[in-house]
TrEMBL record:
Keywords: Cell membrane, Membrane, Transferase, Transmembrane, Transmembrane helix. Gene3D superfamilies: Alkaline Phosphatase, subunit A. The chain crosses the membrane at residues 12-42, 48-64, 71-91, 111-136, 148-166. It is found in: Cell membrane. It comes from Photobacterium iliopiscarium. SUPFAM superfamilies: Alkaline phosphatase-like (SSF53649). This is Sulfatase N-terminal domain-containing protein. InterPro entries: Alkaline_phosphatase_core_sf, PEA_transf_C, PEA_transferase, Sulfatase_N. Residues 203-467 form the Sulfatase N-terminal domain. It is a multi-pass membrane protein.
Length: 510
């Protein structure tokens, strides 16, 4: 037995040594391949990983022959991609929405984002950092035909995921800068509304702008959990088919609340300047951040209101303020005497990530904590709308309230019974949001099944407040023509809504 075991040992250890030598010989190739895959996934091109990841692998092999090239060229691009990994893994490749979110967020939202990142993403990010460091320090492939290899490396890099990443970063930032410049310029411009007729139907108009609420999780739109009990039963008009302009707040709202055609934007002609031109008193109440009148897409519109109050100032000390804190401010605005009609806009945090931080209590307590808190934010928004409607009724004046959400979310979790809802632009549910009107003279609960684009919201708004202008048609949701070829802003381009994928809602398990 001993001799037999000794024979096994004599065979095993030399074989192990040979395997180790072979592994060390090809370790640089394995590391480079792993680095290519992680970088491609991390910058948001997982769907085309074989092609763009393959080109990156070849580029990293060919360009490793020159140390100065690695450090001056690959290092800075790879470092930015490594830092982008968590965002890219969850939200995808750079687009105007992601750039706007990164630049307009406050420190509290950054901390919330970091704490919400799954542990596996942190682990993958650390592996990427380790492989990238190893590549820069140790990997160096020698080639005989250096000029040919260099040119080949550059060609491969041009078609790689990192090249796409750089291109999307540049284009997205360029689009964002154009948007911000247009919004900044609008602050100092006078709206050129040509009012043909102004005859408001109601004494008080209330516009509530929700956040990250997709309609298919609302019981008022058929979800089996009673997430919006008030909206599911109260008299009103619910549009089943309203589509947001874009999938991120900073891109969606400027194109909803002002005249816009895709990437083209005319921010000075917005809901506030239109209401001002109609001699209405305009009041903007917000639980979203206000860094400065020029800093965010929404604050650049809000600044035109005759009165504006922001609960958050966008600095490090910004509190996690509940949407309920807006209710006393609303009652004060409602009580202000005014001979004409008033427009009161409330911009709430609604269902903004992280969901559990938005609510006082998780009222469902389901196993799927993320979705349980998400539905609780729906119930909270529903309660806030109910309270506002009751306050409006108490005045005994005529009123109309309109509610919509800026965009939806999609589920990126691959685990059954567990959700992770995030921003995205690849699914229909990123754009399918509620549009609801409740008014003192609406006495029935009506569901209107009709696809309507938020790019037409200015026409809806104009009709709602009883104003006709030379700049745009004044049409209500019934009068808008049926459009089966609605386009939405996905990434940096307009795409057909019907071409997007489907992300079905998740039914909670207790």
């Amino acid at each position: 037995m001993c001799q037999k075991h000794y024979a096994y040992v004599r065979i095993f250890f030399p074989s192990l040594f040979v395997c180790l030598i072979i592994f060390m010989k090809y370790l640089d190739v394995v590391i480079t391949l792993l680095l290519s895959l992680l970088l491609t996934i991390g910058v948001g091109y997982e769907d085309t990983i074989i092609s763009v990841g393959g080109y990156l692998f070849l580029a990293l092999i060919f360009l490793s022959s020159k140390q100065w090239l690695k450090w001056l060229f690959i290092f800075p691009i790879g470092l930015i991609a490594t830092l982008y990994f968590q965002t890219g893994y969850i939200y995808g490749h750079p687009n105007i929405g992601i750039v706007a979110s990164l630049l307009e967020t406050n420190k509290r939202e950054i901390i919330e984002f970091l704490f919400a990142i799954p542990i596996k993403v942190w682990i993958l990010n650390l592996i990427l950092l380790a492989t990238f460091s190893y590549y820069l320090i140790r990997v160096e492939f020698e080639f005989k035909w250096r000029k040919v290899v260099f040119v080949s490396g550059c060609i491969c890099f041009y078609f790689s995921s990192l090249s796409l990443f750089v291109s999307h970063c540049y284009n997205s930032t360029e689009h964002y800068i154009k948007q911000i410049d247009a919004l900044k310029n609008s602050i100092h411009q006078s709206a050129n509304w040509h009012i043909l007729k102004a005859k408001p139907r109601y004494k008080t108009y209330v516009l509530i702008i929700g956040e990250s609420m997709r309609k298919d999780y609302m019981s008022s739109y058929g979800y089996p959990i009673n997430s919006t009990p008030f909206l599911a039963t109260t008299p009103g008009i619910l549009v089943n088919g309203y589509l947001s302009t874009a999938s991120h707040t900073a891109v969606s709202l400027p194109r909803t609340l002002a005249i816009s055609h895709g990437l083209d934007l005319h921010p000075v002609n917005n809901i506030i300047t239109l209401a001002n031109a109609a001699k209405m008193k305009t009041i903007w109440l917000s639980n979203q951040g206000f860094i400065g009148q020029y800093d965010t897409a929404v604050s650049a519109i809000a600044v035109h209101a005759s009165e504006k109050k922001f609960l958050k100032k966008g600095n490090f000390l910004t509190n996690n303020t509940s949407d309920y804190a807006l209710l006393p401010l609303f009652k004060q605005a409602l009580a202000q005497p005014y001979n004409g009609s008033k427009l009161i806009v409330l911009h709430i945090m609604g269902s903004h990530e992280n969901f559990c931080d938005r609510i006082k209590k998780d009222i469902y307590n389901f196993k799927d904590k993320d979705l349980s808190c998400y539905l609780s934010t729906y119930n909270q928004t529903d309660t806030i709308i109910k309270t506002i409607v009751n306050d409006l009724k108490a005045t005994q004046d005529s009123y109309s309230l309109m509610y919509f959400s800026d965009h939806g979310l999609n589920n990126v979790s691959t685990i059954k019974g567990k959700t992770q809802l995030v921003h995205g632009d690849l699914y229909k549910q990123n754009y399918e949001v509620p549009l609801i009107e409740i008014a003192s003279d609406i006495h029935q609960h009506t569901m209107l099944n009709k696809q309507i684009s938020a790019f037409d919201f200015m026409s809806i708004f104009s009709n709602w407040i009883g104003v006709k202008t030379a700049q745009l048609p004044s049409l209500n949701v019934y009068q808008l023509p049926q459009n089966k070829k609605i386009q939405v802003l996905s990434g940096n381009q307009m795409v057909l809504f019907k071409s997007l994928k489907n992300d079905p809602d998740e039914i909670i398990q207790r």
